[in-house]
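Quick entry between incubations.
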Amino acid sequence: MTGRRLASGGSRIDRARPISVRFDGRDLEAFEGDTFASALLANGVVGGFRSPILGRPRGIVSAGAEEPNAFVAVLEPWTDVIVPATLMSAVDGLVAESRPGVGTLVETADRREPRRQHRHVETLVVGGGIAGRAAAVEAAARGDRVLLVDEGAVIDDPPTGDDVTVLPNATALGVYDAGYVVIHERTPDLERVWHVRARNVVLATGTLERPIAFAGNDVPGVMLAGSVAAYVERFGVGPGERAAVFATNDWGLGVAEVLAAAGVEVVRTIDARAGERVVAADGDGALERIVVLDAAGREGSFEADLLAVSGGWNPNLTLWRSIGGDLTYDAARSCFVPRSGPGSGPAWLSVAGAAAGEVPESEPLWVVAEGEDADKFVDLQRDQTVADVAAALGRGLRSVEHVKRATYIGTAVDQGRTSGVLAAEIVNHLLGEDPGAQGPSGARPPYAPVSFAALAGPFAGDRFDPARTTPMHAWHLEHGAAFEDTGQWKRPRYFAPGGEPLEEAVERECLAVRNAVGAMDASTLGKIEVVGPDAPAFLDRMYTNRMSNLAVGSIRYGVMLGLDGMVWDDGVAMRVAEDRYYVTTTSGGAANVLDRFEEWLQTEWPDLRVFCTSVTEQRAVVAMNGPRARDVLAAVGTDVDLSSETFPFMTFRDGTLAGVPARLARVSFSGELAYELHVSSWHGLAVWEAVLAAGEPFGIRPYGLEAMDVLRAEKGFFIVGQETDGTVTPADLGMDWIVNPSKGDFLGRRSLRRSDLVRPDRKQLVGLLPEDPAALLPEGAQLVLEDTGRIPMPMSGFVTSSYRSPALDRTFALGLLEAGHAMHGRTVYAPLPEGTIAAKVIPPAFYDPEGERRDG
Amino acid sequence: MTARRPLAGLAADLARLDAEELPFLVQLDVRIGTGAATTLGFPLDAMGFPLEPNTTASTSWRDTLWLGPDEWLVVAESDQPELLAEQLEEELGRALARVHHSIVDVSAARAILDLRGPARLERLAIACPLDLHPRSWGPGRCAQTVFGAAPVLLHERPDATRVFVRPSFAGYVIALLDSPV
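Done. Structure below.
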């Protein structure tokens, strides 16, 4: 192959700056300013690509985003899975490989760490051609902030101004409601996604030249005429040496003059308006011969290596249509143009220039009658021909939408930029309809392929999702905590400073709480201040039990239901003053509970004088559990009288602890004597350290979620989301006592009376003691009443929590079992691949069922 | 016993970002029934509660940030923040006694950092969807918004953007601020 760089010309290249690029292992010489496609053509690479399905030789067709063939993967100096060579700048040292319209994941990391930027402007212009630049200048003149983007590497004569930003190499991927536009900027040095909010959006997206379906129209060397001119004028490249031009319009035919002026021999022009047409293009891997019918129907053939084709011009309206813009058919130009007026596109969106329909007049010619339909390609990326469209119609399909789905025309990487309108017109033609009877199939974002990495931008790795940490987190890290994710929170699961296994650490932590004392970081508890004269009435409506008669200084446990009557969240309410409660929620439910409070206050009961404020992060919490808890508190130092007589269970006291203000609350999730220590999160770490230091002589240990789980399960305390799954009522949990049906209305009350929620055979919470005290039931194991040995068996329930209990010196579990409350004493079975585990059903209270340990 | 700065572990990152932590400021969340100013003629602006949305009112020692139609954040500096918080609570409580209100000490509920440098707003625009251009943002403005997945409160000051963030989100916010612009 010979080089095809012309002796002169090329507005975009700098002939003084030669560069070298590599394509499929071959070194190519080029100039700065070349696209990768112009570099290929300059080196005589006419074919070089393959079609994805049929494996036919393919070459560069276009000079822009409509390119259906010339896709490459970039390997160096950055990485890209698949990009059109026509839009990619050639830089020195670039290494790329051809791709058949299908990318392959590149394993190496991209040197361009993807970025992200928000931007607000009054006017966003998409497209940097004449119309786009004019719109930008006009907007800047009226004082707008302006952003002008173009998918090409160069925007000629760019507008300037203090508040004017011009972004080449930037593709508008999607236009969304209220002027939100997502833009993908991609250069050799950086990749960035812009999230733009614009008051006005101008689509100056230009026009795309249309191919004509004739036999052999996919042979390398058959190109779009306007693109041929672009290669000559911008890059000083003659894509062929013996050229022919086949066009339905003056612009297309004019390319013959461009070629001739550049010194390329033009052997023939074929004017479709005069009845002339190309009936075949042939060549072995590249164009060699063209067969033509003249106006009188006489066939002739001649040699050529370049055929420039122009079937007319389609305004590029993908973005317009994707946000609800309609099309109308312009018969003079044989193309679809935007329909203006009500109901067509949003008011803030306008279309300018060629995209608005300012394109040359053209004869309608979509498909040449002569030749085999199976050789006339419609969608080069999907290898679909006129015969395939005819076959779809033959199966009874009539809508272009159905034809699209039957053939996949327009669904490939190039999004059907050359094939969409062509396919629609061929459908019209084959159905005997007028041109424009049906328009192209619908358009959706993204306008061009974009990688997930680019869209994610900086939200990757540690920045993918916040990892929320408590004020004591640094201590946990230093003391061998293994962490568990609770929502976004990182919480210690257990402490293994010597790298002990989980079982060993949990046993040690459980025994410390049962026999001495343990401390847990409970800072993640949701906390809300509920303030106002109507706070008591409000909380009565949110919880199933009464909160309005709670005494100041006292604490009450409460459950919240969904409107369906199912357990939704739980926690305690502390009455701080007549008009002030301090409410705790589950760690994962904190935001949802506050949202629910606000929703009911703002939408249903605006008459209630109540304000809710999140104080989750205001206060750190140390939960101290165990018979020596009171001794530890005394050793830490507090001005609160700790005796059970003056400070009984389910009350709280405000005072000082270790010299800082603290709220001490006697609530217990373990059944042991317990205090929750609520302090300013500024002091969280110091109080935590003070408690552990003062507790040392008493055998204190920090404990994590796993031990907390064992301890609460030994007492039969449920956890929202573990024993409940949105189908469990308080009665199912054996907690009818928490529901006060006589106090007035509360959320979920009405549902509790539905017949299905009072059925005696509902799944109910039970305790399970495996007959083999060493056998551990897997959580989630199904329970059956009779182990028939034949699968399937009727399933009566499942295991919700299961642990080894150091205090009981055996395994135990909680489960939901049909009619479970009436099943105490029965044996149920968990058939498992490794053998069946039999377990006795008992009430869900394994340890200290009389509650004698809570006062120490 | 010493209080711990919420951003104590992030000092090196803050320095790299030309940011500075302002630890231990007093922050009070003040809610006032929406009818107070309009119906009852309560002189909220004279009391230092700005009524124009997303603006702040400042005196030499305290800022009041508009957070919502019935919500403000009072921010003040003191060597003895816990004492000042109590005093302020009492003082405001007295002043607002005749209207439905709530005052909650949230001093430790948000860490505070001042972002400096001319590129700070561009850096925030990595993940903050608000328009931070001088046309709609500048000294005296405040806004509750997000920075990526973290809720933040921004207060633009003459030489810095003050960022209020829940301490648990601080590591995430600073890592995101530190991503390439």
